[in-house]
Structure formats: C-alpha cells, structure tokens
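Recap for those who missed Tuesday's class. We walked through two folding examples back to back. For each one, the amino acid string is listed first and its predicted structure tokens come directly after. Nothing is annotated here on purpose, so try labeling regions yourself before you check the end of the notes.
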Amino acid sequence: MGTINMTLQNDIFKAVSVMKRGGVILYPTDTVWGIGCDATSSDAVRRVYEIKRRSDSKALISLVSDIDMLERFVGNIPSSVADFLKKSDRPTTVVYPSCRLLAPELLADDGSAGIRVTSEIYSRGLCQELGVPVVSTSANISGEPAPALFSEISEEIISAVDYVADFRRDDSTVSAPSRVVKLNSDGSFIILRP
C-alpha cells in the first residue's frame, strides 16, 4: 500500500477483514462518506440495500483502485473513456454497458453497472487490500439528504454497519458528488450528471 502510515493501514485492514466475512462498513470515499461491502457478495450487497431501506431496482455503484482492476470487471475500456477519466478534474462514475463478476444485485436491468476509479487514499486502499471492487453508496436512509460530513451521519446508519472507519472522521472538507457518464456499446458516452 505504499507509504501510508500504520494507523491508516490498520484501519483499512480491519475494514477489509469485516468485508471478507460478508460485513458492511462505513467509510470515507473520494466524494462523501459511504456505506460499503464486497461488491462480489450478494448477501452483503442485499444488507446494504436493507440498511438504506432502498429498493433494489436502484443500482448501487462500486469503487475500484485502478484501471487494471476496472478492466477485470468490465473488459477492455475504450480509449475515449480512458482519456476522459485521465483528464477529469473530479471523481467520475462511468456506467458500463456490461460487467462481470459483480454481485447481480449491483447490475441494472440492462446488465449495466456504475463503477468509479477512486484516487482517495482510504477507499483506494480498501479496494487494493480486498482485491475486488467495494460498493459505495451515500451513508443515509434512501430519500434523506446525503451527509457531507461524518458528523452528519445518523446514529441509525452508524449502528447498522459492522465497522466504522476512524480515518477522516474529523475532516470538514465537503466534496461534490461524482460526475456520472454512461458508456454506450459503440464506445461513445453521454454525460448523465455533469
């Protein structure tokens, strides 16, 4: 994991240990605090839907640590998308037309799924240590405002998860939601959320 400090590394290891056992975590991402789990575990993904009281018809996104991990789950990435991601000035979620190896509950009816390459140290470390994508959905009950800071997360959410990350709990930086683009099967893409 490079040069991250031992306290951060231990926090990541604890979170990953929980996810490997099918647990659900609360953690900081490159946008907002998220509820997450192993994106290949159907049981864990279903728990995230239950915690959020969200209909499973509303697909959740996943985070990956890098382009190599992304390609394992979506296949070859068109150069147009790779270039767009490299030049992006903020986190960008891409809805890919087809994905493999993810829990079926993460796929939309058409087989597509939203995935974002994260550059944030904690969420990237989770993906690297777990070795698979990590679900990322805002830490709120569905329909309620997404909390921008850890201090805004409801006790109901905190008590429902199996592990709460220590990292960035006191952070007062408010991040914008990710940009969302949809990749078409012909390699072109459209912006769904600027």
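Example two. Treat it independently of the first, because the proteins are unrelated.
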Amino acid sequence: MAKVTVLGAGSWGTALSYRLCKNGHSVTLWAHREEQAESLRNTRENDKLPGVFLPENIRFTSHMEEAASGADLIVMAVPSTATRETMEKAKPFLPAGQRVCVVSKGIEEATLMVQTEIIEDVMPSALTAVLSGPSHAEEVIADMPTVVVAGSADRFLALFVQELFMSPVFRVYVSSDVKGIELGGSLKNVIALAAGMSDGLGFGDNAKAALITRGVSEMSGLATACGANPATLSGLTGIGDLIVTCESRHSRNRKAGMLIGQGKSMTDAMAEVKMVVEGVYSAKAALALGQKYEVPLPIIEAVNGVLFESLSARDAVSELMNRERKSEFSSVGWD
C-alpha cells in the first residue's frame, strides 16, 4: 500500500482518488478551499460527479502541510494554470527527490513549458511523471474500462505509477516520451475547441473527420519539432485523446467550442461550461510554440483568431477551406 496525495479536488482529481483508494492505497485529497474540503467530508460526494459516493477512507483537507508531508507520490490534478502556484505551496513540505505525477494538461503561456517542466522549474530535485490518455472522470469513477499512459524519463517511476493505478478497469501503459505525451494532451484540447465550433455551426461528420485528421497532423508536426517521438501522437495520448475530446458529451472543450459556434462569446461559453476549459488557456502558447519552431498550425491559428481576435467561427472555417492548394503529405511520390 502506498501513501498518495492528490492535489486538486475537481472531477479528475476526485476520480483518480477514488481509483487509487479502490486499489488499496492510502489517499489524501487536497482541496484549494476549506469549504470544499468540508463539503467532501460531510457528503462524500463531489457536486461535479453527482450520485457517486467516495470511500470513507479517503481523507480530505485544505491544509497543504497535512496533505503533502510524507507522501510516496504527489498527484498534481489542479487546472494547468494553477500548477506552478500549487507546487510553490507544496514545495516547503516535500523532500528532495519527491515523486510527482502530473495529470492536468496544458502549456504555460508565459514560458511555453509543459506541466512536468513547470514542476521541475519550481523544484529541480523532483522526480516527475505524467499520466494521460482518453479518460473522462465521469467514466473512470463509474468503473468503465479506461486505458492511459504513464510517462517518465525515469523508468522506475513510470513503472511505479503504472503499478499504483493499474486495475481490471484501468489499464496503464508506460512510455519514456514525456514531451510527446504532454503536448498531445495539451494540443488536442485546442483542436477539440475547433471540433466543437464545427458542431455548433451545424456542420456534419465530414467536417469533424477533417478537423480530427488534420488536427493530428498539426499535433504531430509540432510535437516532433519539439523533440517528441511521432509515434506517441499516433497512440493513446495523441489521436486517442483527441478522438474522445472531440466527440464526447463529457468534453468541456468540445462543449465550449460548440457554444462559441452557436454565437456565444468565449467568456459566456466558459461560464456556461462551469469548469476550466484547458484549450482556451493553451491556445496562445500552442501558436507561440508553432512560431518558435516554424511549424504551420492553421487550425490552431484559426482557433486563436476566434478566441482572441473577434474572428467569427464561420469566417474561420471559410479561411481554412480557402487556403492555398497543397498536397496532403510533403512527399506525394511522383517523380
């Protein structure tokens, strides 16, 4: 049995706490606000996952020292925009060599760092891992079959995370390609916003299939330029996560995009979703990475235009459809 602390009591942090507890581990779930911790203690229920009651042996706290001290693994499950701040709060209570597994997805706009890089920037001695893949909290906490990937530059840490989370309903693969896993998980949220906009505009399967396929091309091209293994973007944390985020009724990025496609502003769409829409916060950083590595990202550029430059979703589609003619792949095979 391991002692695991999950930082972040949103739907994903709650679902993973449930999974770890069911696997027999000692789990502490840290909430940013004391009123949320108190509600969890009293009701054993997260209002974002109604109808599911959490095991009695999960401990809830809003005190960082109580949560972080003595953990075999810290699971960082706060929104990606809060990762740096939360790690700064936890750092005084963590030993050198602390194992930290990030499960949130996003690129920091100011630094263009992915989540594990933020952890290492705040605490250089930390041993970092990432857990990612097509995995909605609503299905994980209902014990529906889910398959993800644990990635780390440290083989033993990847295997440790795999061992902690693996169960008959939660399969975990391992990988050393942390950058590929994290970029896949971050970039797919931006593409899912575009897919949602297509739905909101009333377009059909043809448009959605094109967005997913060309989205994979953009994700793979940028990730490869950043040093990732292109095979990673063809796996669970690339195309797998992209498909589920573009198609699922649980996807907050798709839902926000759909509302924008129907004419709502970005602010109103995010307010209606009532949860953090990670793609909105990664969109500018993704475009900046593309510019840094000179990788064309037409879909991601179009999403930025809609979110931040008053471009309508319908006009964005028109711009994408009327780009200059080109081959699908760089080499078409003709002499």
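Answers for example two:
The chain has 15 helices and eight strands.
The two ends are 62 Å apart (CA to CA).
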